[in-house]
């Protein structure tokens, strides 16, 4: 704590001030209006006692010491929007300027910057513009701030029968072992009947036995039958 600046210490934290000084620490000049003339721009100083004063400012000026001029900012009636700060060199500038908060631009900070302009969201996501920020509305199968993370559809282990799962976009494939089928290999495939799998094209799909002495082979005719080279029929 400071001591008595223009006085003597009578008791701890109690100052006896010299003539012309006041305040808890004797730091307030009782003659400030005559010795220092704190009011600027033609303002009139009025002593309030106890070392305090106030200024009566002329038209067009304001502030504790009449230091601020009623310039373009005041005349325009707080022209800056969206939290922007009006600046006019304490009223002495010819025109005002607006200092905008992050996310806004324009002469009066009236334009919200489109944070989706650079298309930050991936994989067809919808970009939602905010104030100095954006968010991505991800399509099914993707997540993350920019929707760049493909969700693992195999994480729940959907494939049965020990099948291997292959992840896709919002989908999966199961590589089923032999004898099983279905989306998750849940189906047991029927065992093929040998009778239905026998060759039904007839005996002439094979080469005819070699003819004695000729060795000719049969071939399919355009009509679906078979003829042996040399005119012999296929037996």
TrEMBL record:
Gene this protein is translated from: DLK2
GO process annotations (BP): establishment or maintenance of epithelial cell apical/basal polarity; heterophilic cell-cell adhesion via plasma membrane cell adhesion molecules; negative regulation of Notch signaling pathway
InterPro entries: EGF, EGF-like_Ca-bd_dom, EGF-type_Asp/Asn_hydroxyl_site, EGF_Ca-bd_CS, Notch_Cell-Fate_Det
Domain EGF-like: 29-67, 69-110, 112-148, 150-186
Record keywords: Calcium, Disulfide bond, EGF-like domain, Glycoprotein, Repeat, Signal
Cytoplasm among keywords: no
GO molecular function: calcium ion binding
UniProt organism field: Ursus maritimus (Polar bear)
Disulfide bonds: 57-66, 100-109, 138-147, 176-185
GO CC annotation: plasma membrane; protein-containing complex
UniProt-annotated stretches for the region Disordered: 212-235
Gene3D superfamilies: Laminin
PROSITE patterns in the record: ASX_HYDROXYL, EGF_1, EGF_2, EGF_3, EGF_CA
Name of the protein described by the UniProt record: Delta like non-canonical Notch ligand 2
């Amino acid at each position: 704590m400071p001591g008595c600046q223009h006085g003597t210490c009578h008791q701890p934290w109690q100052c006896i001030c010299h003539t012309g000084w006041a305040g808890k620490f004797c730091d307030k000049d009782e003659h400030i209006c005559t010795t220092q003339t704190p009011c600027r721009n033609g303002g009139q100083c009025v002593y309030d006692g106890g070392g305090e004063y106030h200024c009566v400012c002329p038209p067009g000026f304001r502030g504790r010491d009449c230091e601020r001029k009623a310039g373009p900012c005041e005349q325009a009636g707080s022209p800056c929007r969206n939290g922007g700060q009006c600046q006019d060199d304490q009223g002495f500038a010819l025109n005002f300027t607006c200092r905008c908060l992050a996310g806004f631009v324009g002469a009066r900070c009236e334009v919200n910057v489109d944070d989706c302009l650079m298309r930050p969201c991936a994989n067809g996501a919808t970009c939602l513009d905010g104030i100095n920020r954006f968010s991505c509305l991800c399509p099914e199968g993707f997540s993350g701030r920019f929707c760049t993370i493909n969700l693992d559809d195999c994480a729940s282990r959907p494939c049965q029968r020990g099948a291997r799962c292959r992840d896709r976009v919002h989908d999966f494939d199961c590589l089923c072992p032999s004898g099983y089928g279905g989306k998750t290999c849940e189906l047991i495939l029927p065992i093929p009947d040998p009778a239905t799998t026998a060759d039904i094209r007839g005996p002439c799909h094979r080469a005819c036995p070699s003819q004695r002495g000729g060795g000719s082979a049969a071939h399919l005719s355009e009509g679906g039958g078979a003829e042996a080279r040399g005119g012999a029929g296929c037996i």
